[in-house]
């Protein structure tokens, strides 16, 4: 798995390595044996329906959730520790962007002050150097100095997402987790943020773990994809191949669920029931012989 930030044969190992990840919430197994590698500069997508375990996987990788079993290695060292030192190291290598970044900004501080905060924590130095770095970051994500002097509530959704990206980039992380990071934005703003993310990956060699449900967005931003269903990976491969020639019935169902001209809603509903091992037509009372056709 190589990305645009790398050239020639890969010399370094994965920047992120996940093995046998399991997460149980009581009786619910949210993640069930997930594993993958992410190379420097690569972009890997996690797709699947709501409840398939994408966000839980991402949250465990980010250290926001504790795994029931399995390992996460970041830049060649275990990433699961809870000590302050472990958390600082994780934050230094890995940052996460959420659908709505509003919560990660202090509403009383200017955007520039918020962007400066992690820099002060991870790379303490003279205030002038920090200010210069903040200006550079604002510029890198396409925000003006004026936007930097604003409070988060005075920015648009797209500007706020740019600010969140600038804040994350401040520590020069090697991995950025993007959890539905453009899902709440208008389509045109989405396109701008995706273009920005493309440029950042190309320029910095940062790697992305992208959680998303919009397959058009996933196709644009990722090289490889894992398709998750009920906590398990049911298909993986190059994004183009998986979306063009899906091999697993569930991946086909996901693709068929995207409304396009001529979309056959009934067929999607039928396939869904077959995959779930349910009888064909639950709405017909006394329907004869529920010989479902479980295919999975
Ligand atoms: N904190 C929690 N406590 C109990 N169950 C949880 C918790 N977090 C997630 N789950 C359950 O784990 C399963 C996977 O959820 P998860 O949010 O990871 O899926 P997802 O694919 O990211 O879905 P979505 O796109 O809706 O966020 C679901 O059944 C969910 O209800």
TrEMBL record:
Q: Which superkingdom is the protein from?
A: Bacteria
For the keyword Membrane, the answer is: no
* Domain (ABC transporter): residue spans on this chain: 16-255
Any idea which UniProt keywords this protein has?
A: ATP-binding, Nucleotide-binding, Transport
Q: Which Gene3D superfamilies match?
A: P-loop containing nucleotide triphosphate hydrolases (3.40.50.300)
Pfam families to which the protein is assigned, alphabetical: ABC_tran, oligo_HPY
Q: Where is this region: Disordered?
A: 274-296
Matching SUPFAM superfamilies, A to Z? P-loop containing nucleoside triphosphate hydrolases
GO molecular function terms noted in the UniProt entry: ATP binding
Extract the PROSITE patterns matched here.
ABC_TRANSPORTER_1, ABC_TRANSPORTER_2
**InterPro entries in UniProt:** AAA+_ATPase, ABC_transp_ATP-bind, ABC_transporter-like_ATP-bd, ABC_transporter-like_CS, Oligopep_ABC_C, P-loop_NTPase
What family is reported?
A: Belongs to the ABC transporter superfamily.
Q: Which PANTHER family match?
A: D,D-DIPEPTIDE TRANSPORT ATP-BINDING PROTEIN DDPF-RELATED (PTHR43776:SF7), TRANSPORT ATP-BINDING PROTEIN (PTHR43776)
Protein name (database record): ATP-binding cassette domain-containing protein
The organism encoding this protein is Actinomadura parmotrematis
């Amino acid at each position: 798995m190589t990305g645009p930030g790398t050239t020639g044969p890969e010399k370094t190992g994965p920047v992120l390595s996940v093995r046998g990840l399991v997460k149980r919430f009581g009786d619910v197994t949210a993640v069930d044996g997930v594993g993958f590698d992410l190379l420097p500069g690569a972009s890997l997508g996690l797709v699947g329906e709501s409840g398939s375990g994408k966000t839980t996987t991402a949250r465990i990788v980010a250290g926001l959730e504790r795994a029931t079993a399995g390992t996460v290695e970041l830049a060649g060292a275990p990433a699961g520790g809870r000590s302050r030192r472990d958390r600082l190291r994780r934050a230094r290598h890995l940052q996460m962007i959420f659908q709505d970044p509003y919560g990660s900004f202090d509403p009383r501080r200017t955007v520039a002050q918020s962007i400066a905060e992690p820099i002060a924590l991870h790379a303490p130095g003279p205030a002038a150097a920090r200010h210069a770095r903040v200006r550079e970051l604002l510029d890198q994500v396409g925000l003006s100095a004026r936007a930097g002097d604003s409070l988060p509530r005075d920015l648009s959704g797209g500007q706020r997402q740019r600010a969140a990206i600038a804040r994350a980039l401040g520590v020069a992380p090697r991995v950025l987790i993007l959890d539905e990071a453009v899902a709440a934005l208008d389509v045109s703003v989405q396109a701008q943020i995706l273009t920005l993310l493309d440029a950042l990956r190309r320029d910095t060699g940062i790697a992305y773990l992208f959680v998303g449900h919009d397959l058009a967005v996933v196709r644009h931003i990722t090289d490889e994809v894992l398709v998750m269903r009920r906590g398990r990976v049911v298909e993986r491969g190059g994004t183009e191949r998986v979306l063009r020639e899906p091999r697993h019935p569930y991946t086909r169902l996901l693709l068929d669920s995207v409304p396009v001209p001529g979309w056959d809603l009934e067929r999607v509903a039928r396939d869904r029931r077959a995959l779930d091992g349910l009888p064909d037509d639950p709405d017909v009372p006394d329907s004869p012989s529920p010989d479902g056709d479980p295919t999975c």
